[in-house]
Amino acid sequence: MDFTIPAALEKMLAEMRNFVRAEVMPLEREFSARPFRDLLPTLQEKRARVRARGWWAPPLPRAIGGMGMPLTDFAHVSEELGRSPLGHFIFNCAAPDIGNMEVLLQHATPEQKEKYLLPLARGEIRSCFSMTEPDYPGSNPVWMGTTARKEGSDYVINGRKWYTSSADGAAFAVVMAVTNPDDPKPHRRASQIIVPTNTPGFNIVRNISVMGHAGDGWASHAEIVYDNCRVPQKNLLGAEGAGFVIAQDRLGPGRIHHCMRWIGICERAFELMCAHSASRQLAPGEVLAKKQSVQFWIAESRAEIDAARLMVLNAAFKMEREGAKAARIEISTIKWFVANVLDRVLDRAIQAHGGLGVTDDTPLAGWYRQERAARIYDGADEVHKTVVARQVLREYDVEI
Amino acid sequence: MDFTIPAALEKMLAEMRNFVRAEVMPLEREFSARPFRDLLPTLQEKRARVRARGWWAPPLPRAIGGMGMPLTDFAHVSEELGRSPLGHFIFNCAAPDIGNMEVLLQHATPEQKEKYLLPLARGEIRSCFSMTEPDYPGSNPVWMGTTARKEGSDYVINGRKWYTSSADGAAFAVVMAVTNPDDPKPHRRASQIIVPTNTPGFNIVRNISVMGHAGDGWASHAEIVYDNCRVPQKNLLGAEGAGFVIAQDRLGPGRIHHCMRWIGICERAFELMCAHSASRQLAPGEVLAKKQSVQFWIAESRAEIDAARLMVLNAAFKMEREGAKAARIEISTIKWFVANVLDRVLDRAIQAHGGLGVTDDTPLAGWYRQERAARIYDGADEVHKTVVARQVLREYDVEI
Amino acid sequence: MDFTIPAALEKMLAEMRNFVRAEVMPLEREFSARPFRDLLPTLQEKRARVRARGWWAPPLPRAIGGMGMPLTDFAHVSEELGRSPLGHFIFNCAAPDIGNMEVLLQHATPEQKEKYLLPLARGEIRSCFSMTEPDYPGSNPVWMGTTARKEGSDYVINGRKWYTSSADGAAFAVVMAVTNPDDPKPHRRASQIIVPTNTPGFNIVRNISVMGHAGDGWASHAEIVYDNCRVPQKNLLGAEGAGFVIAQDRLGPGRIHHCMRWIGICERAFELMCAHSASRQLAPGEVLAKKQSVQFWIAESRAEIDAARLMVLNAAFKMEREGAKAARIEISTIKWFVANVLDRVLDRAIQAHGGLGVTDDTPLAGWYRQERAARIYDGADEVHKTVVARQVLREYDVEI
Amino acid sequence: MDFTIPAALEKMLAEMRNFVRAEVMPLEREFSARPFRDLLPTLQEKRARVRARGWWAPPLPRAIGGMGMPLTDFAHVSEELGRSPLGHFIFNCAAPDIGNMEVLLQHATPEQKEKYLLPLARGEIRSCFSMTEPDYPGSNPVWMGTTARKEGSDYVINGRKWYTSSADGAAFAVVMAVTNPDDPKPHRRASQIIVPTNTPGFNIVRNISVMGHAGDGWASHAEIVYDNCRVPQKNLLGAEGAGFVIAQDRLGPGRIHHCMRWIGICERAFELMCAHSASRQLAPGEVLAKKQSVQFWIAESRAEIDAARLMVLNAAFKMEREGAKAARIEISTIKWFVANVLDRVLDRAIQAHGGLGVTDDTPLAGWYRQERAARIYDGADEVHKTVVARQVLREYDVEI
């Protein structure tokens, strides 16, 4: 076993950290206080700088403009970018685009790649992934109300989706819809279909108000009604009925990205907590850090963040070596484990800041609000714990 | 011992609950989505209905238009009103006005009462309480930067305050300021002074953005610079140097109000969790409530809420019988105990709602954001635990 | 509502507390280090003193030698006695005898009362309750392997039981056995039957080694094989098929007794923790109690114990006023709630004692071992949480 | 980074696991039920088999009969041996002997090595480490009551120690005593001295009853009075005044050993929990593992154990590469982190077993009792959290 990060990677990570600190963090206050569209020109300028540094879209292949980074290396990068809510966006590796790009890479036709993948990879357009439905539980992905009926050479899509993140302003959506309702295997019934957002019948009902904000642009979550929304059948992504298989492909690396992003948040929150504790005076000359309760928050957070990082890196390593299926326990485990570490670390950091912690003068309150969903999306804690138990119990000849 | 609520009170509580459900809850969506000032005309109309029902300002004496309710009875009312974020406001018993009214009742001169208490009691004006400072820790209330220097017959106030809730639009502030910096006893150095908000030098710097919103009007928290702000010395509230003593008077009953309000929130969140679990289908015919994890959240929340209520009622009972000093352990205990129950109950209710839980389609996400501060304001968890331990350890002859 | 304990009861409780401290606690070291039988003569002598004080068997009717205490009063007594592991035994109100006496009072024939209840009430014999089976889960009480088959005028009992506490040396067992296997209602299939322990076929296989000790006498838990164990049918307790109904009768008050006993343990552990923290020096002149972590343990334990007590007293009050059925939520809640408070309070007290905490120089380590079972017996935490959720969810028209 | 265990090591670990299962686990029931001395002949026979397999004393150098395993490899072995309470003893790498051997290797004179180290390494004698004192806190190791006064060519030792584990039957003790009380640096005042247990004045007062058992032989913890106990000065281990430095040397690798041993316990408990859940029927055909609560215990335990192992292996790796000082945060972190994982995993495993879990029919109850001390010895949780916070806060220029 070897826990060393290669020196070249270490060096690049340090440079990225500096870049994020110098170029990205100063935008945070504006990001939290104003519409996303107002910030967009500045973000495009930052993206140009990133590209100039040779850092663009790290996990994408060099052939389409990325850095061609393996998952285990990008994991570290994702942590660095995660220290600011804007890091991944500026490096063009933010959800949902990065997930769509990875899926298009694997499953798109040459024509689809040309039309959807390449402009995404260049950062010219944005996209969204339209899977979750308000009337059906996310915990049961094979139960879905949206259908895509064949008519002539088209699919006609009907249904209601929500939490289609970043749909506002996106050029296209990848939509999950039931195409084969009579397939005896429930997980073979749905397909993924590319739907340009200017297609008639693609109706954004609202940007959902989440934790106090409806947001806009990339920073939003849409509710969408598909009302006889008609696209050509060539917009099918991969095979018909392969919707869930493709969705699984998306989730593996996506989980590593997310988890390391959360760890980046944790590290930033940890630094803020330590710095505040070390400087805030409770009485003349007596700093907050003298309090044993704060010391314990520091020690517990340090331990939990380090544990979380090792878990994620180990999962990425196993996924890379043995494939996502072999790493199923590890991948499900990090989802809930890291999301809960994030929850606790943010909570402690806020408590250590006192009244300041709930203001928007630090990024803590924003993360507290926005990342509460980390324990819910992409499979709630409860779902993933059950997945792990199911895998474990199979070795004991029990099917749960 | 007798755990029965008198029948007449039970009846009134049921009527209030119906009123809150029918008249107050329908305003919540608008409250969360629009400026407070837009809602104000509707709120005034609701206040008129409350008054018509004979329910106005329950803890205030009848002589000034209240219901003259003892603390132990009002505790129950506060729970009912707490089920909606607007309940206390509509009944004219919301912080900070109710605290100011209670303090004015006890300590104001007849002239001060005429000018400040009575219009407040009638709901014609609003007020604020200006104590917390950004540069000094709330955990050490005797260490404060704001001063009130005597000049002629005036006090000249200088300093910076924040978390002066509801200052925006208030008619006056009760300001804590150091008037006797040389008093050997630190807790005898500050006084409370009434400052009309139109006094020159009373400068609201900003409504602080808290958990994503700066808010306005009653629903805001101001940062205020007192810049040679001059008021006549007759605006002193109570004795000079009695600032902390008066602040203590405020905190006792205030804690009961707050804690029972939080219990009201808990009960509403509990109902939402149960109702959602009972109706949300995970698969055709299989509701969420079948999941053992959800069942445990229900059982644990039921237990914790019931425990919290008994603790608060017991504290109110003891405070009423033996005074706030005798009930010091109980009063400090409920502050952190109930705030943490609130935290957990809201967290579980959100988790049970899944993606819906973090939207503003239910009041849960709003409470999650706004009530995170419950573990911080009026003494953080850590402060109150230390207070309790100090009291306990005195019986073991240790001073901590 | 009234949280006052009547003065006369307060006075008696104080006297009992003194008695327990002076007469009972000094026996603890011997109790933990030596066989129970060695201690028995001393215990009998203490019992005589209790009787002389007029305190014998508080919850039993005066007519049979008890104090005739209502449940809500005895709750307080149970707390006082619970401060020592020997308290209830010395006052002749320890499990399992007190449960058997309560059941015999309600359900026994005059002849059964004469033969079994009265000697028990006088403390001349001991008894046991034989319900739990090793091969069937306690969480499903209607699924049971032990049968009582009618032959002539007898029942012939066959089966294996364990956790028949205090069987070693008992005069008789009350045995749960299936008498009506074909009854369509599972909970009408079993009956309770009185079995003298000298009946042939009543075979104690072993005193189970529990947490390191098999124990003996009252302080033991037997595994018993009923091997064609034959008793006359007149030994049936109550109606045939009423086994579960009678068991339910036993559990209600039993839960109050247990929970208040646990609270007594908590209070003793709390005192030990405070006293040790107040005197143990970490450095010359600096006591352990100066540590914020210890202060928090004190505050948290104080809060949780007080919450637990209020919950139990409220449950007892409701049970007394409205019956056990109406108080089902409260009774199930206190079972798991108080058992978990006990767990945490003991854990903190041990941690505060450091190395001393795990020795048998204090009673803490003994409770830590023996009371781990509190979260398991009489319905594990998980069972009771489900019971509560079931009751709650019925109001939402869901049957779980 | 590379998370792979080398194939040769994997193979050996599998063989050791089989050996432990086949040869060691069958002794557990006897170990828990009878005096250690009764089991000793069997243990010696098992030791012979271990030696025959070439596995003796893995972390010791080959030159003195060990396997010469590096710390990072032995970590894995320690986990395998930890699956049974007797594993380390049988492989001659159990505390306190292994710690004494490591310290003697580094600090003993050739004569001391000949006399004390070699017989230990051969398993001919046992030893103990006499540091902890009942009257002084373990959290403040530089405050100590035991003194070693020079008289002629001897040290004369006086003081009281406890928790001198395995003193009963040991050939010698390594004793910490103050030799230089006037050294201005408190951590330079004590020395380590080798004391043969047959020295006059070495008085074992008692084997302390810990969690219900005083034990004997290796499985015991002595209280010792040193009463003018006189040994030659050549028995000094290392330099005078170097007691704490040497103690630190001992703790680093010792922590890895202990933590991996705890992880071995966790894995065994995890297997027992899974196997029991998979087979225990709650109703005909419905196994315990169907319960979501049990599934969550499995998932949470799996995650925590895996996190713990990665933490420990990473700490061992860093210690090996950069030394114990550089790895101070990691070493302190694993101490409390793993001890708490152990605590929770055992608690869940017991709860899953129900009544069976608190019996001694499985090893769970024994570990629950004996390993409660894991959160206390070698630095309580609170001590290590403070150590971590101190290190972290130094980067923020605060000394706590």
Count of folded domains of chain A: 3
Summed over residues and divided by their number, the pLDDT of chain A gives a mean of: 96
CATH topology-level fold name of the largest domain in chain A: Butyryl-CoA Dehydrogenase, subunit A, domain 3
Ends apart, CA distance between termini of chain A: 34 Å
Oligomer: homotetramer
Percent range for β-strand residues of chain A: 15-25%
User: What CATH first level of the largest domain in chain A would be assigned?
Assistant: Mainly Alpha
Rg of chain A (C-alpha, Å) = 22 Å
Structural class of chain A: alpha+beta
**Architecture of the largest domain in chain A, according to CATH?**
Up-down Bundle
- Determine the fraction of residues in helical runs of chain A and give it as a percent range: 40-55%
Give the tally of β-strands of chain A: 11
Could you name the CATH homologous superfamily of the largest domain in chain A?
A: Butyryl-CoA Dehydrogenase, subunit A, domain 3
User: So what's the overall shape of chain A?
Assistant: globular
Task: Please give the most extensive interface between any two protein chains, plus how many residues each contributes.
Answer: A-D, 53 and 53 residues
What labels describe this entry?
homotetramer, 400 residues, alpha+beta, Butyryl-Coa Dehydrogenase, subunit A, domain 1, Butyryl-CoA Dehydrogenase, subunit A, domain 2, Butyryl-CoA Dehydrogenase, subunit A, domain 3, 3 domains, five-stranded antiparallel beta sheet, four-stranded mixed beta sheet, 13 helices, 11 strands, globular
